[in-house]
Design brief:
- Helices cover 14% and strands 28% of the residues.
- The chain is of the alpha+beta class.
- A hairpin with a 2-residue loop joins strand 5 and strand 6.
Amino acid sequence: VGMTMSSTTSAGSFAAPVGNTAYGRTGNTATDPKEVKGYSAPKYAPIYQVDSEPTVASEVKIPYPEEARRAGVEGTVTLSIAIDHEGRVSSVKILKGPGYGLNEAARDAIRRFRFKPAIKGGEPVATEMKYSYTFLLD
């Protein structure tokens, strides 16, 4: 079931702009189909299927939270992080930690870390992994 240009007009075909109008007006002219690029999602592989795991390329010094320093709290924060195919941290979840601001400090800093991405079949892929950061008082 459908409609063809031949059933609606005898003057030929034309390009009609289409799209989601909830985000504003569509353009006055449609993009030439030859110029449209197909959608390509980044490749993802679970950490247990990659050939090489992500490694830290550059890290950010995590400042010791004053609340934890005053309370004399040390400890390890365990995070679940998603790393994209370019080595950027795309999401962070705190799994466990001692609190006193250490969990949030680790979460905020890890977002600025850069990694060498995981490799599968010779290509960089996105993946998720656990990452632990230990805070020690000086």
